[in-house]
Amino acid sequence: MADEKGLTKRADDFAAWYNELVLRAELADYSPVRGSMVIRPYGYGIWELMQRGLDDRFKATGHQNAYFPLLIPQSYLEREKQHIAGFAPEVAVVTHAGGKELEEPLVIRPTSETIIYAMFAKWVQSYRDLPILMNQWANVVRWELRTRLFLRTSEFLWQEGHTAHATEAEAEEEARRMLGVYREFMETEMAMPPLTGEKTESERFAGAVRTYACEALMQDNRGLQAGTSHNLGQNFSRQFEFRFQTEAGGEEYAWNTSWGVSTRLVGALVMTHGDDAGLVLPPALAPIQVVVVPIYRTEDERALVLEKAGTVANVLRQERVRVHIDDRDTLKPGPKFYEWERKGVPVRVEIGPRDVAAQKLTVVFRRDIIPEVPRKESMDEAVALMTIPRRLPEYQRALLEAAIARREEHSHRGVTEYGAFRDLIEAAAGFVYTGWCGSAECEAKVKEETKATIRLIPLEEFRSSDRPERCIACGSGAAEEVVWARAY
Predict the structure, then answer these.
(1) DSSP of 85-154, one letter per residue?
(2) Mean per-residue pLDDT, 402-421
(3) What is the DSSP letter of 8?
C-alpha cells in the first residue's frame, strides 16, 4: 500500500473522503454483485472484535446463540401485513431452484422475526418455557437502491436478538435493557457516544409497538442510526399462533422483542474518529494496537533491529497487546509510516540501530490526544514497555471524551423559531432539539421542507432541562421534545 496520494479532505467532500478511506485502508471493496461488498481481512478484523465484545455482553445477560434459515417462505412475511409492507421494496425472492419453479417463492431474509416466532410457537407450551432469549449472527439481504460501503449495502452482516416473554412489562424491560447494552458497547469499545431514545411512529420498525434507537453524530454532522431495539408486543405471536398456558391456567399470546446492530458500525467507527490522514481506531477495536517498524540500511543492522523488534513484541503480547512487526523489505520506513497511519493503528514503535544501542524506543501515537502526553516520544525501552499498555486505555478514553465534546458542540437546544431551525439544518449544524406536537403531518412537513427527520424522542438523560413548549412546525403545544438531523 505505497500509494502516496492523499485522501480528499473531509471539509471538501466528506462522502468522497469516506469512500476513498474505506477502500485505501483495505476495509472493504466493491463486489461484482450490485450494491454488495467484500469485507477485506482488516475490516473483518474490526468486525470480529465488535462481535466478540457484543457476544460477551449478550451471554452475560442470559442470551444464547442459535441459527435460523436464510430462506423464508413468502407466506410467512405476508402474515404480518405491517411487516411485509415495510420490507416489500427491499425483498429479494427466489422463485426457481433445482431447475424447477418453486411451489412457493422463498424470501432471502431481510430480517428473521417471522421464521423465528413460527419456531418459538412450536417450542413453547406454558409459561415455564419462557422467557426465550436468543440471538443469531447472520447475513441479511435488503435490495437497496442507493448503497455505500458498510453504511447501506444489499447484503450485510449483523446480529439479531429475538426474545419471548410472558408479560408486556418483561418485553419492555428487555427492549430497554438491550438498548442500554448497545449504548454501553458503543461508548466503551467504539468510543462513540450515541443518544438513546424512542422512534416516532413513522420511523418505527415495521410491526413493532415501540422502537428504541442509538443515534450517533458523524463528523459531517449527519445522524447515523447505529442500533435499534424493538418491543414487538404480540403482533407476531398473533400471526403465528404463538400462545402459552399462563400460570393461572388460561391462554395468552407471547410478548416479543427484537434488536440488532450490523456491519454499519464499522462505517460509524470510520466517520466518528477518522481524520484527513486516514482511520483513527480506538484500541479496543484495533486489529493491530501496536505496529513495530524496524529501521535499517544493512543486513547486519536488519538482523540486530529485527531481533529487538521481536523482543519488544513478545513483551507487549504478554500484556495482551495486539502487535504486528512490519518487517517487509519491499517498503522503506516512510511509506510504512504512511500506511499504518492510514489504517489507524493506535501506536507505532520505531526501532533503529541507534535505538538498540541506547536501549531506547520511539513511541508514536496515531493522534495527539492524551493530555500532557506527546504524540512522539523517545523513551527508555523498559519504561516504554511498561507505559504503552497503560496508555492504550488512556487513548481510548481520550477518543471518547473528544467525541462527546464534539457531539455537544454540535447539539442545539432551545430552538423555537422555524426560520432559525431551518437555517441550522441547512448549515448541517448537527442535532437540533425542538418541541413537536406529535402529529405525523408536522413531522412530514419538516422532512419535506428541510430533509431532516426526527432521529428520536430522547430518553430522560438526554432531554433538555427546559422542556420546549411549542411545536417547531405548527406552533401548537408540544407533546414531546425531539431531536432532528439530516441522516444517513
Answers:
(1) HHHGGG-EEEEEETTEEEEEEEEEPS--HHHHHHHHHHH--BGGG--EEEEEEEEEE---SS-BTTTB-S
(2) 97
(3) P
Q: Which residue has the cell 435490495?
A: 143
Residue 468, preceding peptide bond in cis (omega within 30° of 0): no
Both 255 and 308 in a single domain? no
pLDDT tens digits for range 199-233: 999 999 988 999 999 999 999 999 999 999 999 99
Q: Of 231, 230, 124, 196, whose CA–CA distance to 407 is shortest?
A: 196
What Å distances lie between residue 316 and 151, 262, 337, 354, 360, CA to CA? 34, 31, 20, 21, 15
- Single-letter amino acid code for the residue at 332: K
What residues form DSSP beta bridges with 94?
Answer: 106
Q: Which domain holds residue 455?
A: 411-485
pLDDT digits 0-9 by tens, 230-258: 999 999 999 999 999 999 999 999 999 99
Residue 460, domain CATH: 3.30.110.30
Report whether pLDDT(15) > 60.
yes
Three-state secondary-structure class, residue 471: strand
**Three-state DSSP state, 280:** coil
